[in-house]
């Protein structure tokens, strides 16, 4: 019976390729990893919901703050408008008094009226009268009329020019931007009222002032949070009042404002109120609201710093957020503990699955998993029983036997009945025998593989051994072994034996017949040297026929390589398919030789090619007389030359010429024998 280990197998992927393919193959996640993915998804969903809640809370906080800011700014606007309307009425009454009494032409009477106004309005900074050209006519701050300045001409009052001209063009009270009074020696808000005659022309201008500190006294008393800013802004961009003030008033009152409030007013159109956000006059990021004064070109505003808004929002969400974060941390901790406990239980169950029955498995804590594990254990038990039965069936079908021997001394310690039947001995006669007493080893390699090259074709774990049967016949066994260490620490070798006696005996018979054919071939070629001519060829043909019959071959052919062609020197064919003197093309199956150089000879076995009778490429050629009188392996140069070189010497269609070996025109000599020739027919 043939050894299955020596039968041709299809190419399979290497172990590294299989491992790489297994690594590339996607694997299902573990239950723990799946749980973590679920937890991560839940945490992501939780974070998304919390983020949405935080964003909604932020928008709600800002919306509530904007509403409160608009309401507060409206109240500030109403308060400022009431104050300015009262002052407007007082200044109008003062102007009517001065005009009715003709005090403009009576400096003494003018001072008396102004002093009376100052006494009745202690919250204001006195009173002053100007002519339309800017000349100060009288003031409660100075009684020297000759030393009073002209605010439109004096360089010291350059800041008054725009506001004074604005008062001349304004119907009613004109609120000027804060100035530092040279006479009062402190900051004030100039309030001017242009007194007009019946023709509408300005007769004189009455001015009073409100000290900046006094105007902001009401704001200081409001219960506001730290960081809140409020004030009044003229619609042309000049800041009238702001609380709290900057250390340097010039930085905010000395030039028009260009912050977020001014931009909001420009884009609001005729809106009575609105909100704004951005960098303000103090350089901070603020969010606030504004409201217009109905009778004056001013707005009242109230703003919070962005940090203050963030603190308000954080105060609202801090407690719920910390509670949600604590709950999430508690859930993650509880899940981690449960997962670790579950993993430990599953590891313990996995270790016990190979040793206990399905009913004895501990619980994993999940009913579905318990049912699946019990079914798995039952399936594995069934597979083990099936594997044992299958192994026994396979061994019986393959007529294979098993054995066990110790590695240290090679004593056979176990064997089955099949192994004993192969050796034609009972099992009890084999147990305890040493391995070397029973078998002889052939170079650790089966003879069937050793024919090619016994030194280089070793295969790990397979051996070919032989022994004698009861009747003296040779018994060949092919062995496959592997080493193992038992639980007691003993090193043993388990083996599988297959009887390959028929194959090995046949291979050795073929080998002997091949050696006989080679010997006959060598004798034939040697006799042709001593007896040249046709008799040598007849002897070779006779010996080749004997070798063909001995090897049970359909045909045996001795071929010679000549350039790109293959020449049949001697032919022995039972069916007459081939003739001596034929030439085959280079792609013909019989021309397959390891060496393709000129002068190569080999024996072709046509039994391997049953359909060669219909193969194209076989044609007859003229055999030169010189080649008939020379050694069989020496070719004429006309055969060895390429077709192009042959045509350059000899016209096409003419009879081929022949030159002896060694001549200048010949390219093949007897010394050009190749390794293919030397392997089959050794040269002397």
Automatic annotation (TrEMBL):
InterPro entries: PAS-like_dom_sf. CDD domains: PDC1_HK_sensor (cd18773), PDC2_DGC_like (cd12915). Keywords: Membrane, Transmembrane, Transmembrane helix. The chain crosses the membrane at residues 34-55, 321-343. This is Uncharacterized protein. The lineage of its organism: unclassified sequences, metagenomes, ecological metagenomes.
């Amino acid at each position: 019976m043939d050894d299955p280990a020596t039968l041709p197998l299809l190419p399979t992927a290497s172990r590294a390729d299989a491992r790489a393919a297994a690594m590339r193959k996607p694997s299902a996640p573990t239950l723990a990893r799946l749980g973590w993915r679920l937890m991560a998804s839940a945490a992501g969903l939780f974070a998304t919901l919390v983020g949405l809640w935080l964003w909604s809370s932020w928008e709600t906080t800002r919306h509530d703050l904007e509403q409160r800011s608009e309401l507060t700014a409206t109240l500030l606007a109403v308060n400022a408008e009431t104050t300015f309307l009262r002052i407007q009425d007082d200044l109008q009454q003062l102007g009517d008094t001065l005009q009715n009494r003709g005090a403009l032409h009576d400096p003494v009477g003018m001072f008396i009226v102004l002093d009376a106004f100052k006494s009745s309005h202690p919250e204001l900074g006195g009173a002053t009268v100007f002519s339309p050209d800017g000349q100060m006519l009288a003031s409660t701050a100075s009684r020297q009329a000759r030393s009073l300045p002209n605010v439109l001409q004096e360089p010291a009052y350059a800041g008054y020019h725009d506001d004074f001209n604005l008062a001349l063009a304004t119907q009613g009270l004109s609120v000027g931007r804060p100035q530092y009074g040279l006479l009062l020696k402190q900051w004030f808000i100039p309030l001017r009222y242009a007194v007009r005659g019946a023709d509408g022309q300005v007769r004189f201008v009455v001015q009073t002032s409100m000290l900046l500190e006094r105007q902001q006294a009401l704001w200081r008393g409001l219960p506001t949070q730290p960081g809140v800013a409020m004030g009044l802004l003229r619609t042309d961009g000049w800041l009238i009042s702001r609380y709290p003030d900057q250390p340097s008033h010039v930085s905010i009152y000395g030039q028009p404002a260009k912050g977020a409030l001014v931009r909001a007013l420009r884009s609001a159109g005729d809106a009575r109120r609105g909100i704004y956000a951005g960098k303000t006059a103090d350089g901070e990021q603020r969010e606030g609201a504004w409201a217009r004064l109905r009778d004056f070109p001013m707005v009242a505003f109230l703003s919070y710093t962005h940090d203050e808004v963030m603190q308000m929002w954080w105060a609202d969400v801090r407690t719920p957020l910390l509670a949600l974060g604590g709950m999430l941390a508690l859930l993650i901790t509880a899940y981690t503990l449960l997962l670790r406990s579950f993993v430990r239980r599953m590891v313990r169950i996995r270790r016990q699955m190979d040793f206990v029955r399905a009913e004895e498995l501990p619980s994993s804590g999940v009913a579905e998993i318990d049912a699946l594990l019990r079914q798995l254990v039952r399936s594995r038990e069934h597979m083990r029983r099936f594997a044992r039965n299958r192994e026994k069936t396979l061994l019986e079908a393959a007529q294979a036997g098993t054995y066990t021997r110790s590695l240290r001394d090679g004593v056979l310690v176990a064997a089955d009945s099949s192994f004993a039947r192969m050796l034609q001995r009972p099992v009890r006669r084999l147990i305890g025998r040493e391995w070397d007493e029973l078998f002889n080893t052939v170079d650790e390699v089966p003879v069937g593989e050793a024919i090619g090259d016994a030194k280089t074709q070793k295969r790990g774990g397979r051996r070919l051994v032989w022994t004698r049967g009861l009747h003296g016949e040779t018994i060949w066994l092919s062995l496959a072994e592997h080493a193992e260490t038992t639980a007691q620490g003993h090193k043993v070798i388990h083996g599988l034996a297959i009887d390959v006696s028929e194959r090995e005996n046949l291979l050795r018979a073929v080998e002997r017949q091949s050696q006989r054919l080679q010997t006959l071939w060598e004798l034939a070629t040697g006799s042709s040297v001593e007896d040249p001519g046709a008799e040598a060829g007849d002897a070779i043909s006779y010996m080749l026929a004997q070798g063909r019959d001995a090897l049970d071959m359909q045909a045996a052919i001795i071929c010679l390589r000549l350039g790109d062609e293959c020449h049949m020197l001697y032919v022995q064919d039972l069916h007459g398919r081939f003739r001596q003197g034929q030439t085959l093309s280079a792609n013909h199956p019989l021309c397959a030789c390891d060496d393709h150089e000129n002068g190569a000879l080999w024996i072709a076995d046509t039994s391997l090619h049953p359909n060669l009778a219909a193969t194209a490429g076989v044609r007859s050629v003229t055999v030169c007389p010189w080649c008939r009188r020379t050694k069989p392996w020496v070719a004429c140069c006309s055969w060895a030359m390429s077709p192009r070189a042959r045509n350059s010497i000899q016209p096409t269609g003419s009879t081929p010429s022949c030159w002896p070996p060694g001549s200048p025109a010949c390219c093949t000599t007897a010394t050009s024998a190749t390794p293919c020739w030397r392997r089959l027919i050794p040269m002397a």
